[in-house]
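Bench notes, bay 3.
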Amino acid sequence: MASTCFEKCASRKHKENDLALGEMSCTDRCVSKYLEAQEKVGVVLQKANEAQMAQQQNLADMQNALGGR
């Protein structure tokens, strides 16, 4: 994230130690978008994990029901 946002936002003609106002705004937006995307990915992965756990539980229940006969 840091290198991607820096590449996108920092001027190639960087002469000062500090970032310019436009560079800082760009970096803030870039980081915000990255974190928002990571949060959405986390939610999707969490739902997928929950679905997989439910599927495994259903499979175990079926195996127990068939084995109990």
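Next record in the batch:
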Amino acid sequence: MTSAAEALPGPSITTNNAPANLDDPANVRRWLQENHPKQLALLEKFQIDLRLGRILSSTTPSGGDEAGSNIGSNSSTHQKYQYGKERRLVTSHTVELLRSIIGPTRWKTAAQLLTLLRGLANELHDVGGYREPAIGNMVRRVMFIVRDEADNFPSGGGGDVESKNMEKIDELSAQVSTKLRVSPSSTSAPGRGKELSLASMLWAHPQHVTMKHSRQQSGEGISDMRIRSDSFGSTDSGAVNVTSSNSFGCDTAATQIYPPHYYMQWDKLRENVMEAIEEVRGELKDLHKNINDQATQHIHNGEIILTYAFSSTVEWFLKTAAAKKRNFQVIVCEGAPHFGGHAMAKSLAEAGIDTTVIHDAAIFAIMARVNKVLLPAHAVLANGGLVAPSGCNIVALAAKQNSVPVVAVAGMFKLCPLYPHEGQDTLNDLISPSSVVDYSLMGDPVLSEVEFVNPVHDYITPQLIDLYVTNIGGFQPSYIYRLLAEYYHSDDWD
């Protein structure tokens, strides 16, 4: 006689009672739940606040309210977030979350810490972090710090210790190498068919290999290894699958193999990483000050400057120039349909700056009188392109037609190692068209057949941008790729 549970059809449920380890980003949540429930509670609170937009209306971790965060009481939380909210606030909370999780948790090696960070990135991406690329950028920045500290792993410390460490590194290297199957070459000598060729030895270095664990139908566990290049003929394509690393939030089952010394324990690693995170926090704290110090280099007396909608970074940049006795005029595009330009113009006028608000339709007509265009930034892409509030692309095109220089003002936390493969859809989002058309009008037979698209951002090609003003200086779009190498590791770009 079978029980009711046995009689019910459906998939079988298996329970994994084995303790979670930091060997796969997918295990990070369960690892935190089993070993660090307080840190998991911090992560879940951050996820809820991020999803509901509470971070945007709270104070900074240092306790101070961010200025320039209100663009109108009738705007929705999402609209405020995209137009005029101080996005450094979200970034500071992200760094604070990483610091609170990395500090107390019991990871032992750089490889475990990188796996923990990748798992946290996946968790944040799943709850809407894709709308704020700066969150992923901060995780990549911390991962770069960890890699940099691990690469500076001391090789000294006594003959016995050094010898023991080298033995462990050689053992880890051998384990990685034995996982690769190399087909015999027609030119190889007998008995040497399974030796690695020069190409496969180079590409078998741990940072170029990723592993993906799966199970066969028979229940046996296998390791399906993939290499980033499929151009070498010394590998057996039947035994080795070729793949690439996956982006944050896409394939959480992939486990990356790191260089052997990343698996070594180093007592000072935690201390050095925490000190570097504090430096990042200090950089974010002084971000606007460092940007504003360059205001007088780009704004001169008698200039007419055009900007679009609301941006606290551009607002403070202009106010700083005015405070340093620069006499100039500002033309603000109203930024329909959210009309953040109205709040921007009001704030600048209260600071004593000669300000004029124009309709977006008048951008091309007024551009002939403009000396310089200042644009806000949502993200700076790897090719030097700019993701900015919707409508900025029209401004950039008009400026290009009239040979007016376009300057984008952005903090380095907006530097994003992504390429615009999707064109205008890159890092874009569509929101409710209620700000464009009233729902009560949708009963009209003509309007009911119209599809209303309300994008949040525009993608601006690097050919339309003349200069980026950041907290570490001014750079042309062609130099962005160099900054990426200084802020993120290439293995963490995806």
